[in-house]
Amino acid sequence: MNSTMTARTATSPEAERVHVDHAVAKRLGRWTSASQFDARVRYGVLVLDLRSPDVTGDVDIRLDLQRSTLKLLLAEGDRVDHLDLGWTGRGQVKDDQHPAGPGGRVVRLAGHADASEIRVRRGGMAALSAMFSRAFVQDLRQARKNGGYPTVDDPTRAAR
Questions:
Q1: Dihedral sign of CA atoms 144, 148, 152, 153 in order
Q2: Strands (E), 50-116
Q3: What are the distances in angstroms from CA 17 to CA 11, 39, 43?
Q4: CA separation (Å) from 159 to 24, 66, 112, 150?
Q5: Calpha distance 26→67 (Å, rounded)
Q6: pLDDT tens-digit readout, 25-54
C-alpha cells in the first residue's frame, strides 16, 4: 500500500480542508460549521478561529505542518489534546492559558509537525488576535454599513 492510498483513507469526506503554501491564511469569525479539519501548511502561517457557536462538539484537526505556525483561537474552557501529534525537529505547543479543570470541548490534534509551532489563544487574547487583522476592519465597515455588529472579534455575538 503506497502513501497516497493511506492519505486518502485517513481524511474523511466531511472534513474541512485548509492548505497554505508559503503564505499567511486566516479563517476568522463564522467561517465554517465543520468539526473535523485537515490542515496542510508548508512554510506558512495558518490561523483557525474555532470559537463560533456553529462548530459544535469536539473538534478533530489532522495536521501536516512543515516549518510552519498554526494559531488556534479557542473559547475559554476548551482543552487541547496533542498526544497523537508526531514531531520531527524542534517544535512545541504553546498553551499558556490552558483551563484548570474539565469542561468545554476537546480539540484533538493529530498528524505530523516538522519544525513547527502551534500557538493556542483563548478568551481575550483570541479576540485581540482576531482584531489585528484585515478581516476585522472589513467586518467593521460592513457592519456599520448594514447597521449591525461585527462578528470577527466575537463569533458568538449576533450580527443583528
A1: positive
A2: 59-66, 69-74, 79-88, 92-94, 106-114
A3: 9, 6, 17
A4: 26, 37, 37, 6
A5: 17
A6: 999 998 999 999 999 999 999 999 999 989
> Residues for the chain: how many in total?
160
Location of C-alpha cell 524542534: 90
Question: Which residue type does 82 have?
Answer: H
- Please say if the pLDDT value at position 18 is more than 90: yes
Say how far apart CA 2 and CA 96 lie, in whole Å: 39
- pLDDT for res 47: 97
Q: At residue 2, does pLDDT exceed 60?
A: no
For residues 120 and 74, the answer to whether their CB atoms sit within 8 Å is yes
Among candidate residues 76, 40, 39, 80, the one with its CA nearest the CA of residue 58: 80
CB 127 within 8 A of CB 151: no
Q: How many CB atoms lie within 10 A of CB 113?
A: 25
pLDDT at 23: 96
At 158, which amino acid appears?
Answer: A
